[in-house]
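Morning, I've got a small favour to ask if you have a moment. Here's the protein in full, and shout if anything looks odd to you:
***
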Amino acid sequence: MNRPEGGAMPRGARERRTAILQLADSSGLTSVDELSTAFGVTASTIRRDLAQLEAAGQLARTYGGAMPLRHEASVRQRNGEAAEAKQAIARWAAEQVRPDETILLDSGSTTTALARELAHRSDLTIVTTAITVLHELAGADLRVECLGGALRQLSQGFVGPLTEAALERRTFDRAFLGADGVTAEHGICEAELEQTRLKELMARRADHVYVLVHAEKLGHRPFRAHTPLSPGWTLVTDDSATRSSTAPFHARGLNFVVAPTTSTTTDQAG
Protein backbone atom coordinates (compact mmCIF):
# COMPACT_ATOMS: atom_id res chain seq x y z
CA MET A 1 0.00 0.00 0.00
CA ASN A 2 1.35 3.43 -0.94
CA ARG A 3 1.94 6.16 1.59
CA PRO A 4 -0.05 9.41 1.35
CA GLU A 5 1.06 11.88 -1.32
CA GLY A 6 4.25 13.69 -0.37
CA GLY A 7 5.44 10.85 1.87
CA ALA A 8 4.92 12.77 5.11
CA MET A 9 2.99 11.09 7.89
CA PRO A 10 -0.19 13.09 8.70
CA ARG A 11 -0.11 14.22 12.32
CA GLY A 12 -3.68 15.27 13.03
CA ALA A 13 -7.00 13.50 12.53
CA ARG A 14 -8.11 15.95 9.84
CA GLU A 15 -4.92 15.46 7.80
CA ARG A 16 -5.13 11.68 8.27
CA ARG A 17 -8.73 11.58 7.00
CA THR A 18 -7.81 13.66 3.96
CA ALA A 19 -5.00 11.21 3.24
CA ILE A 20 -7.37 8.26 3.71
CA LEU A 21 -9.66 9.73 1.04
CA GLN A 22 -6.71 10.07 -1.33
CA LEU A 23 -5.64 6.48 -0.75
CA ALA A 24 -9.15 5.10 -1.11
CA ASP A 25 -9.58 6.99 -4.36
CA SER A 26 -6.31 5.66 -5.81
CA SER A 27 -6.56 2.05 -4.61
CA GLY A 28 -10.33 1.49 -4.70
CA LEU A 29 -10.65 -0.81 -1.71
CA THR A 30 -8.53 -0.13 1.36
CA SER A 31 -8.51 -2.34 4.47
CA VAL A 32 -8.54 -1.16 8.07
CA ASP A 33 -5.35 -3.12 8.80
CA GLU A 34 -3.51 -1.51 5.88
CA LEU A 35 -4.61 1.95 6.92
CA SER A 36 -3.63 1.29 10.53
CA THR A 37 -0.13 0.28 9.44
CA ALA A 38 0.24 3.12 6.95
CA PHE A 39 -0.68 5.83 9.46
CA GLY A 40 0.82 4.29 12.58
CA VAL A 41 -2.44 4.34 14.56
CA THR A 42 -4.71 1.67 16.01
CA ALA A 43 -7.41 -0.11 14.03
CA SER A 44 -10.05 1.43 16.31
CA THR A 45 -8.77 4.91 15.42
CA ILE A 46 -9.05 4.07 11.71
CA ARG A 47 -12.59 2.76 12.22
CA ARG A 48 -13.54 6.05 13.86
CA ASP A 49 -12.00 7.91 10.91
CA LEU A 50 -14.00 5.83 8.45
CA ALA A 51 -17.19 6.34 10.44
CA GLN A 52 -16.63 10.12 10.40
CA LEU A 53 -15.94 10.13 6.65
CA GLU A 54 -19.01 8.02 5.95
CA ALA A 55 -21.21 10.26 8.10
CA ALA A 56 -19.90 13.23 6.11
CA GLY A 57 -20.85 11.50 2.86
CA GLN A 58 -17.24 11.25 1.65
CA LEU A 59 -16.63 7.52 1.88
CA ALA A 60 -18.51 4.21 1.74
CA ARG A 61 -17.54 1.63 4.35
CA THR A 62 -17.22 -2.01 3.27
CA TYR A 63 -16.48 -5.22 5.12
CA GLY A 64 -13.03 -4.63 6.61
CA GLY A 65 -12.34 -1.37 4.84
CA ALA A 66 -13.69 1.40 2.66
CA MET A 67 -14.24 2.56 -0.89
CA PRO A 68 -14.45 6.04 -2.42
CA LEU A 69 -17.94 7.45 -2.56
CA ARG A 70 -17.61 8.36 -6.23
CA HIS A 71 -18.13 4.64 -6.94
CA GLU A 72 -21.52 4.48 -5.21
CA ALA A 73 -24.01 7.31 -4.84
CA SER A 74 -26.21 7.44 -1.77
CA VAL A 75 -29.95 6.83 -2.08
CA ARG A 76 -30.50 10.51 -1.27
CA GLN A 77 -28.29 11.53 -4.19
CA ARG A 78 -30.07 9.10 -6.51
CA ASN A 79 -33.51 10.46 -5.58
CA GLY A 80 -33.02 13.39 -7.93
CA GLU A 81 -31.76 11.34 -10.87
CA ALA A 82 -34.14 10.34 -13.69
CA ALA A 83 -37.10 11.34 -11.53
CA GLU A 84 -39.68 11.18 -14.32
CA ALA A 85 -38.49 7.75 -15.42
CA LYS A 86 -38.59 6.39 -11.88
CA GLN A 87 -42.08 7.76 -11.36
CA ALA A 88 -43.26 6.04 -14.56
CA ILE A 89 -41.70 2.74 -13.49
CA ALA A 90 -43.18 3.03 -10.00
CA ARG A 91 -46.61 3.85 -11.41
CA TRP A 92 -46.60 0.77 -13.64
CA ALA A 93 -45.33 -1.44 -10.81
CA ALA A 94 -48.04 -0.20 -8.44
CA GLU A 95 -50.70 -1.20 -10.97
CA GLN A 96 -49.52 -4.82 -10.77
CA VAL A 97 -50.17 -5.12 -7.03
CA ARG A 98 -53.48 -6.80 -6.24
CA PRO A 99 -55.64 -6.40 -3.10
CA ASP A 100 -54.60 -8.40 -0.03
CA GLU A 101 -51.16 -9.22 -1.42
CA THR A 102 -47.96 -9.28 0.58
CA ILE A 103 -45.16 -7.58 -1.31
CA LEU A 104 -41.47 -7.05 -0.67
CA LEU A 105 -39.71 -3.76 -1.47
CA ASP A 106 -35.94 -3.70 -1.79
CA SER A 107 -33.91 -0.61 -0.90
CA GLY A 108 -33.37 2.01 -3.59
CA SER A 109 -34.77 5.25 -4.98
CA THR A 110 -37.14 3.56 -7.46
CA THR A 111 -38.58 1.17 -4.89
CA THR A 112 -39.04 4.20 -2.64
CA ALA A 113 -40.99 5.85 -5.46
CA LEU A 114 -43.12 2.68 -5.63
CA ALA A 115 -43.81 2.92 -1.90
CA ARG A 116 -45.01 6.47 -2.49
CA GLU A 117 -47.41 5.18 -5.16
CA LEU A 118 -48.79 2.55 -2.78
CA ALA A 119 -49.09 4.74 0.31
CA HIS A 120 -52.79 5.43 -0.31
CA ARG A 121 -53.68 1.74 -0.33
CA SER A 122 -55.21 0.02 2.71
CA ASP A 123 -55.42 -3.56 1.45
CA LEU A 124 -51.76 -4.62 1.44
CA THR A 125 -48.91 -5.89 3.56
CA ILE A 126 -45.63 -4.29 2.57
CA VAL A 127 -42.37 -5.76 3.85
CA THR A 128 -39.12 -3.87 3.26
CA THR A 129 -35.44 -3.63 4.09
CA ALA A 130 -35.36 0.12 3.36
CA ILE A 131 -35.57 3.02 5.78
CA THR A 132 -36.65 5.32 2.93
CA VAL A 133 -39.62 3.04 2.22
CA LEU A 134 -40.57 3.10 5.90
CA HIS A 135 -40.55 6.90 5.82
CA GLU A 136 -42.91 6.94 2.85
CA LEU A 137 -45.31 4.50 4.54
CA ALA A 138 -45.11 5.79 8.11
CA GLY A 139 -48.59 7.33 7.99
CA ALA A 140 -50.19 4.83 5.60
CA ASP A 141 -53.24 2.77 6.51
CA LEU A 142 -51.69 -0.59 5.63
CA ARG A 143 -49.56 -3.21 7.33
CA VAL A 144 -45.86 -2.42 7.15
CA GLU A 145 -43.06 -4.74 8.28
CA CYS A 146 -39.30 -4.20 8.31
CA LEU A 147 -36.61 -6.84 7.92
CA GLY A 148 -33.94 -5.52 10.27
CA GLY A 149 -30.21 -6.15 10.27
CA ALA A 150 -27.05 -4.12 9.70
CA LEU A 151 -27.75 -0.71 8.15
CA ARG A 152 -25.86 0.32 5.01
CA GLN A 153 -25.75 4.08 5.27
CA LEU A 154 -25.41 4.73 1.53
CA SER A 155 -28.39 2.63 0.48
CA GLN A 156 -30.35 3.22 3.71
CA GLY A 157 -31.18 -0.48 3.67
CA PHE A 158 -30.65 -3.39 6.05
CA VAL A 159 -28.41 -6.30 5.06
CA GLY A 160 -26.59 -9.20 6.68
CA PRO A 161 -27.38 -12.42 8.58
CA LEU A 162 -30.26 -10.98 10.63
CA THR A 163 -31.97 -9.66 7.50
CA GLU A 164 -31.49 -12.99 5.74
CA ALA A 165 -32.79 -14.98 8.71
CA ALA A 166 -35.98 -12.88 8.87
CA LEU A 167 -36.41 -13.20 5.12
CA GLU A 168 -36.29 -16.99 5.26
CA ARG A 169 -39.41 -17.01 7.44
CA ARG A 170 -41.58 -15.15 4.92
CA THR A 171 -43.02 -15.60 1.44
CA PHE A 172 -44.34 -12.88 -0.86
CA ASP A 173 -46.71 -12.48 -3.77
CA ARG A 174 -44.34 -10.02 -5.43
CA ALA A 175 -40.80 -8.74 -4.86
CA PHE A 176 -39.61 -5.46 -6.37
CA LEU A 177 -35.82 -5.17 -6.60
CA GLY A 178 -33.62 -2.16 -7.25
CA ALA A 179 -30.24 -2.13 -9.00
CA ASP A 180 -27.14 0.04 -9.43
CA GLY A 181 -26.88 -1.40 -12.92
CA VAL A 182 -28.06 -4.45 -14.87
CA THR A 183 -26.70 -6.45 -17.79
CA ALA A 184 -28.19 -9.44 -19.57
CA GLU A 185 -24.97 -11.39 -19.08
CA HIS A 186 -24.20 -10.72 -15.42
CA GLY A 187 -27.56 -9.61 -13.97
CA ILE A 188 -28.18 -7.05 -11.23
CA CYS A 189 -25.05 -5.18 -10.24
CA GLU A 190 -24.40 -3.82 -6.74
CA ALA A 191 -21.45 -2.52 -4.76
CA GLU A 192 -21.21 -5.43 -2.31
CA LEU A 193 -21.80 -9.17 -2.32
CA GLU A 194 -24.07 -9.01 0.73
CA GLN A 195 -26.45 -6.83 -1.31
CA THR A 196 -26.55 -9.21 -4.27
CA ARG A 197 -26.94 -12.24 -2.02
CA LEU A 198 -29.88 -10.58 -0.30
CA LYS A 199 -31.56 -9.86 -3.65
CA GLU A 200 -31.17 -13.50 -4.63
CA LEU A 201 -32.81 -14.61 -1.39
CA MET A 202 -35.61 -12.08 -1.89
CA ALA A 203 -36.32 -13.49 -5.33
CA ARG A 204 -36.48 -17.05 -4.02
CA ARG A 205 -39.21 -16.08 -1.56
CA ALA A 206 -41.50 -14.37 -4.08
CA ASP A 207 -43.98 -15.71 -6.64
CA HIS A 208 -43.30 -12.80 -9.01
CA VAL A 209 -40.02 -10.86 -9.25
CA TYR A 210 -39.59 -7.41 -10.81
CA VAL A 211 -36.33 -5.55 -11.34
CA LEU A 212 -37.00 -1.79 -11.44
CA VAL A 213 -34.29 0.06 -13.33
CA HIS A 214 -34.39 3.24 -15.43
CA ALA A 215 -32.96 3.13 -18.94
CA GLU A 216 -29.59 4.70 -18.12
CA LYS A 217 -28.72 1.65 -16.03
CA LEU A 218 -29.33 -0.91 -18.78
CA GLY A 219 -26.06 -2.51 -19.81
CA HIS A 220 -24.30 -0.64 -17.01
CA ARG A 221 -22.01 -2.63 -14.69
CA PRO A 222 -20.29 -0.23 -12.25
CA PHE A 223 -19.33 -2.89 -9.68
CA ARG A 224 -18.24 -6.52 -9.51
CA ALA A 225 -20.98 -8.07 -7.38
CA HIS A 226 -23.97 -9.52 -9.23
CA THR A 227 -27.31 -11.30 -8.83
CA PRO A 228 -28.01 -13.40 -11.97
CA LEU A 229 -31.31 -12.73 -13.74
CA SER A 230 -33.62 -15.73 -13.84
CA PRO A 231 -36.21 -16.69 -16.50
CA GLY A 232 -39.64 -15.51 -15.43
CA TRP A 233 -38.40 -12.31 -13.80
CA THR A 234 -39.71 -9.05 -15.23
CA LEU A 235 -37.37 -6.17 -16.00
CA VAL A 236 -39.15 -2.82 -15.88
CA THR A 237 -37.61 0.29 -17.42
CA ASP A 238 -38.78 3.59 -18.93
CA ASP A 239 -39.53 4.62 -22.49
CA SER A 240 -36.18 6.30 -23.08
CA ALA A 241 -34.66 2.81 -23.43
CA THR A 242 -33.27 2.15 -26.91
CA ARG A 243 -33.75 -0.98 -29.00
CA SER A 244 -30.04 -1.79 -28.74
CA SER A 245 -30.08 -1.54 -24.92
CA THR A 246 -33.11 -3.84 -24.55
CA ALA A 247 -32.18 -6.43 -27.20
CA PRO A 248 -29.76 -8.45 -25.00
CA PHE A 249 -32.49 -8.93 -22.37
CA HIS A 250 -35.05 -10.01 -24.97
CA ALA A 251 -32.49 -12.49 -26.32
CA ARG A 252 -32.24 -14.14 -22.91
CA GLY A 253 -35.99 -14.65 -22.77
CA LEU A 254 -36.68 -12.23 -19.93
CA ASN A 255 -40.02 -10.49 -19.54
CA PHE A 256 -39.44 -6.87 -20.41
CA VAL A 257 -41.75 -3.93 -19.75
CA VAL A 258 -41.33 -0.33 -20.90
CA ALA A 259 -43.26 1.99 -18.60
CA PRO A 260 -44.50 5.09 -20.44
CA THR A 261 -43.59 8.51 -19.12
CA THR A 262 -45.93 10.40 -21.47
CA SER A 263 -48.28 7.89 -23.14
CA THR A 264 -50.88 5.50 -21.72
CA THR A 265 -49.69 2.21 -23.17
CA THR A 266 -46.92 -0.16 -22.22
CA ASP A 267 -44.72 -2.34 -24.39
CA GLN A 268 -44.20 -5.79 -22.89
CA ALA A 269 -42.25 -8.66 -24.37
CA GLY A 270 -41.66 -12.06 -22.90
Q: What stands out?
A: The first strand starts at residue 30 and ends at 31. Residues 1-7, 263-270 have pLDDT under 50 and may be disordered.
